[in-house]
Amino acid sequence: MNVQWYPGHMAKAKRMMQENIKLIDVVIELVDARIPISSKNPDIDSLAANKSRVILLNKYDMADPKYNDLWKSYFDDKGYYTALINSKSGEGVKEIKDIVYKACQEKLERDRRKGIKNRPIRAMIVGIPNVGKSTFINSFVGRATAKTGNKPGVTKGKQWIRLSSKIELLDTPGILWPKFEDPAAGMRLAFIGSINDNIIQMTELALELILFLNKYYPDAIKKRYDIEVPQEMEVIKDCIGTLEQIALKRSCLMKGGEADIERAAKIVLDDFRNVRLGRITLEFP
Ligand code: GDP
């Protein structure tokens, strides 16, 4: 699901976020474990100021196990409550209720001192498109829950899902825009398929990916396509030969018998996005 953002979309998303965030105690932010920084919304910190914060590193099954715990520690050290999860299989999802509850302890203490008892914690899921919000909500909510319906003081039409006697979840996630300004972040988002492929140059993107892989995962391309890859690659031009080899190996030929690198580019990106090049993390703490 690729989404394009226009200034109008962004303004509307921001407005909805500001409106909804007043109602909630804890923001549960999903990021992609392969790009935990590039997949973070640039404005979430100001939007969620003074709220309890949970960061879930989703799709950890697609990311390099070597870096998953490092990234978790990175966010732990910044004071977030965190977890590595696979929303698709449900791994790690059961534990999230406890984490959310812990993240709100201080708030609950304050309530208690003010004489407020048994008020459920209200949580909201947020994240950029495609990060796994719907999959996570389905897994998190499971079957044994019921919608609680409208309540006085709650914006009309809002539905809360009761997760336990202690936690309620806003049923619709907050969809936030990704980082547009930073070109490196944009490229990583494009690698994982979160930016509309129509608006980016696939061949150039595949060359960038090969350049990255050659530096950090030198065996990934070799192993997948059974080709020799030059050790020295400095700029994307140096990767064209590799893309040509992949084209030949996969019988992607043009009419004259030349390597069709455009088709090879699509194969490489598709293989990467489906974890056929291995579990790869694209940025490091
Ligand atoms: P949303 O746009 O944030 O609601 O994202 P979706 O829930 O629609 O998920 C986008 C895609 O990512 C879907 O194809 C999901 O099956 C997949 N997905 C979500 N979470 C995970 C995960 O933890 N691991 C893997 N491998 N795939 C996931």
TrEMBL record:
Coiled coil: none annotated. GO terms for cellular component: cytoplasm. It comes from the Bacteria. Residues 10-178 form the CP-type G domain. Gene3D superfamilies: 1.10.1580.10, P-loop containing nucleotide triphosphate hydrolases (3.40.50.300). GTP binds at residues 58-61, 86-87, 130-135, 174. It is found in: Cytoplasm. Pfam families: MMR_HSR1. The gene is rbgA. One of its GO terms (biological process) is translation. Keywords: Cytoplasm, GTP-binding, Nucleotide-binding. The keyword GTP-binding applies. Belongs to the TRAFAC class YlqF/YawG GTPase family. MTG1 subfamily. The lineage of its organism: Bacteria, Bacillati, Bacillota, Clostridia, Lachnospirales. Its main location: cytoplasm. SUPFAM superfamilies: P-loop containing nucleoside triphosphate hydrolases. Required for a late step of 50S ribosomal subunit assembly. Has GTPase activity. This is Ribosome biogenesis GTPase A. One of its GO terms (molecular function) is GTPase activity. InterPro entries: G_CP_dom (IPR030378), GTP-bd (IPR006073), GTP-bd_ortho_bundle_sf (IPR023179), GTP-bd_ribosome_bgen (IPR019991), GTPase_MTG1 (IPR016478), P-loop_NTPase (IPR027417).
